[in-house]
Design goal:
156 residues; mainly alpha; 0% strand
Length: 156
């Protein structure tokens, strides 16, 4: 009997045109110089502020995969512990419609009573990402320029 484990393929966006980030472009430039023989491994490591072992791995990946070798392998995957967008929108809508003006801690308690199993900090993060501010937020005090100059004159 053969024990074959099938690897499920996850849908990755078409890589027709890769959009590299600034750091990835730098990595690719340095690794290409390394491959061309213009610099050595330790110098490449110093330029990228990584270890020589990581440089060897990057070089191998670039040789095998091309430009995609410098892209982090988790880039196209959504974290397992994220809440879906429908729930996030629902929480924000409920707050805006029914509980506007309620502080986030009280709102979190109400939502837990309604059966939403979300912590206070999760609800806070969801509301902040939807550009909702807590009514209890602290406003920064601005110093008046006149008061500063008056205090400095009195010290003289």
């Amino acid at each position: 009997m053969e024990n074959k484990t099938e690897v499920s393929e996850v849908a990755v966006p078409e890589e027709k045109h890769l959009k590299l980030k600034r750091l990835e472009k730098k990595k690719l430039r340095v690794i290409n110089k390394l491959i061309a023989g213009e610099i050595n491994g330790p110098k490449a490591a110093k330029m990228l502020k990584i270890t020589t072992r990581q440089v060897r791995n990057l070089k191998r990946q670039v040789l095998q995969e091309g430009e995609a070798g410098v892209i982090h392998k988790n880039r196209y995957y959504k974290p397992v512990n994220t809440y879906d967008e429908a729930l996030r929108t629902e929480i924000a809508h409920i707050y805006r419609v029914e509980f506007r003006g309620t502080n986030f801690t009280e709102f979190a308690k109400i939502m837990q009573e309604r059966g939403y199993n979300l912590s206070r900090s999760t609800i806070y993060n969801i509301l902040r990402q939807k550009h909702i501010r807590s009514p209890q937020r602290k406003k920064k005090k601005r110093k008046k320029i006149n008061e500063e100059s008056n205090t400095s004159e009195k010290k003289k």
